[in-house]
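From the shared-data thread, chain only:
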Amino acid sequence: MRYDETLAYLVGLEATRGWDLKLERVRAALLALGSPERAYPSVLIAGTNGKGSTAAMVHAVLVAAGHRVGLYTSPHLVNFTERIRIGHAEIDRAAVVQGVQSIRARVDVEASGLTFFEVTTLLALLAFANAQVEVAVLEVGLGGRLDATNVVEPIASAVTSIGFDHEEYLGDSLAAIAREKAGVMRRGRVTVLGAGLEPPARAALLDEARDRGALLSEASSECRDTLALGGGHMRRNAAVACGLLEAMGAAEPRLQVDPASVSRGLRNVRWPGRLAVVREAPRVVIDGAHNVEGAIALRDALPDLVGPGPLRLLFSALRDKHWREIAAVLAPHATEIVLTEIGGKRGLTAGEIAAAFAGRAPRIIVEPARALARLIDEDRTTPILVTGSLFLVGMIYAELMRQSGARSVYDLGDVAGLGLAGEGGA
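Structure, as tokens:
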């Protein structure tokens, strides 16, 4: 089986099965694979927002300290291989093919009902064992209690934030959502909580910790180290990362990290598509805010990123998100609004989105890369914000990679001067 055939097989699982949250079949599959997740310690990071960047920070610090570290995150922006990293390197395509073949040889994927995310999680846990990592950093995909990543026995865990997202699976109150995410807690192990949790969410997490016999550590409001990622919310996430690193070191003394490694890791961490500046003249900021909490964090970070002046907004969203509320948060800060389309069954048409910007007369340019190129050509001074969905971010990054010849989003760099050509140069 070739790499493209392997990806088509995995995507086919998502198309036919979607989300079906159960842990029994994942546990059974791991047993059939020889329990690869037991070959190394793991940490689990849950949260409505901030879990991916927190995982990236923990990973970066551990790598800076000289450890061989696996990192599992989702979703990917452009390439599937972004989801599984060993050290700084993404899993290579041959390993993806071999891993999926190994899983299918030992597990009846079709009969068991394993989903795309579950098979991908199995692939990551198997790849980390094969690579002989010293520790794995796992970002929870959805919720916590029934997420496929929760089959591991973490030495420490974190819950970065609680907000409204995926209510159809997690519940329609902050307390209910918090209880689902509390599933990453373990008896006698530390779970680090992010600062600023809403009282109902915090109370639910405290109750769950008591019931489960878990130990809690509440992170400070922000980290004081120099951080490569901008925005006050990233500093709060860094504080969670530092608390989690401390808990890991207490649980596994060989994983203790020195302050110099913490500073070096946070200074060099990469997390593409989040407050990423990909071009100057005009400044283009890309952020994957796809829920209200993320949009508020983005709004609050804008003054430091683009200053107090006018801003142009390029926006699209998925229909199963709170896109009207996201639009309401961001629209007041834009002097011009351009709507584009992600496509697919979940993607909204620009015409559907336009209703959320009533009275603002948004323009519609259906193809995202063309829309951004047009905005760049029209005005080389006024900043542009691209946001509303990680799918939109991925489409823009794919064009950046095409133009630059980069093979990974991590090769691009969030630096001034790198970005899409205008329509005349594309």
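Residues 414-419 have pLDDT under 50 and may be disordered.
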